[in-house]
Amino acid sequence: MATTYVEAVGVTKEFTLRHTHSLKEMLIAMARHKKLSDTFHALHDVSFEITEGEAVALLGFNGSGKSTLLKLISGVMRPDQGAVRTRGRVAGLIEVGAGFHPDLTGRENVYLNGAILGMSEKQIDDAFDSIVEFSEIERFIDTEVKFYSSGMFLRLAFSVAVHSDPEVFLVDEILAVGDEPFQKKCLQRIRELKSEGLTLVIVSHDLDMVAGICDRGLLLESGNLTLDGPVRDVIRRMRGEE
To answer: Where residue 216 sits, what CATH number does that domain have?
Structure first.
C-alpha cells in the first residue's frame, strides 16, 4: 500500500471579520445595534488523503478556501476542528518572504530559512552554492533582503525550498510573482521533483499548467470539498464543460 503523506480529517477553519477598526467606530456600531464582526467559514469538514508521489492540485475560485488549506498543510495555521497530519519534511512557497528576516542579508536568510525547513548547518553549507546559482541573485546575496524586490524574494525562497530535500512540496500562486524565464525554470524544477517521486500539492489559477503537472484535483467551493478525482475532470467541472 502507498504511504500517506498528507491527511486531513474533518478540517474546519473559521475567521472573524471585524467591521470596526477604532474605539469610535465600535461605540457608534454598538449604539446603532450593528454587528461588530461576522464569522467567515473558510473550510468546513474537509477530509482527504494524499499518498507518496501524488501530484495534487487544490482548485477553486477566489475565496473557496484552497490557500487556507495549503497553509494548514504547511503548519502555518491550525484547524479549529479536525486534524491535518503530514509525514516527512514539508517545504515550499506559501507567501513571498515567509521565513525571511528583512534586516538580514540574503546569505544569512538562506541559513535562517534552511534551518526553519529542517536543514542542518552542514546541509546548508553543502547546498549553498547551488542555492545561490539557481536563484540567480549572486550579486545581491550579501545585501539586506529588505531591499529585494518581490521577484528576488521569490527566487531565493524557491531555491532554498527545492534544495531542502523535502518529502512534500507545496506551491501557492506565488509563482505568478516571478518573471517568465524564472517561472519556466521553477516549473521545470517542479516537474523534476515529480519525476523524482516527491509528493506535490499545488494551488494555481493556471488550469493548463496544473493539467500538465498534476494527476489529481480537489475542488473546493465555499470551503467545502465538492469533487476529488482526476485533475482534468475537476478542471472540466470548473469550466462548466460537464
So the answer is: 3.40.50.300
Q: Which domain holds residue 143?
A: 4-238
* E-only strand ranges, the chain: 4-18, 37-51, 55-59, 81-86, 90-93, 168-171, 199-203, 216-221, 224-230
How many CA atoms, within 13 angstroms, populate the side-chain half-sphere of residue 238?
Answer: 28
Domain count for the chain: 1
Maximum distance among all Cα pairs of the chain, rounded to whole angstroms: 63
Per run of 10 residues, the mean pLDDT along the chain (length 242 residues) is 91 76 63 66 94 95 89 90 93 72 94 90 96 94 92 88 91 73 87 92 90 94 95 92 68
Distance CA 156, CA 106 (A): 8
Buried b (16+ CB within 10 A) or exposed e, 39-69: eeebbbebebebbbbbbbbbbbeeebbbbbb
Report which of 73, 76, 79 is spatially closest to residue 43, judged by C-alpha positions.
79
